[in-house]
Amino acid sequence: MLNSLAGDVAVNGTVTSAVLRIEFQAKTPQGELPIVMTGDFTGTGAAGKAGIAGMGEVDWTATRVP
After folding, report:
1. d(CA 23, CA 21)
2. Distance (Å, whole) CA 17 – CA 21
3. 45 Cβ partners below 8 Å, 6+ apart?
4. Residue 49 confidence (pLDDT) above 80
5. Taking the alpha carbons of 51, 11, 15, 61 in that order, is the dihedral positive or negative?
6. What are the distances in angstroms from CA 16 to CA 19, 39, 43, 65?
7. How far apart are CA 45 and CA 43, in angstroms?
8. Residue 23 CB coordination number (10 Å)
9. How much is the mean pLDDT over the chain?
10. What integer pLDDT is reported at residue 42 of this predicted model?
């Protein structure tokens, strides 16, 4: 489950070595929007890029919750 300001979203993902890949559909007023997040694990979480269909890429970070 991915938690963001937009709410909770079910995700599918893989971890290969230290590389993370997450795919999900964000719900928007215009319909669902495919998003693919890739990144690397850090000491306190993970960071990388999110590809948003038709819009490009943005940076993302995640913090590990104990």
Report:
1. 7
2. 11
3. 61, 62, 63, 64
4. yes
5. positive
6. 5, 11, 17, 21
7. 6
8. 14
9. 88
10. 87
Whose tokens are 């590809």? That residue is 51
Distance (Å, rounded) from C-alpha 7 to C-alpha 48? 20
Nearest to 26 by CA among 43, 59, 41, 4: 4
- Partners of 41 in the β-ladder: 46
For strands 2-4 and 31-41, give the pairing: unpaired
CB 47 within 8 A of CB 61: yes
Give the pTM: 0.77
Give the whole-angstrom CA distance, residue 60 versus residue 35.
12
Tokens of residue 1, six digits: 């489950």
Write the pLDDT tens digit of every residue in 9-24. Answer: 888 898 888 899 999 9
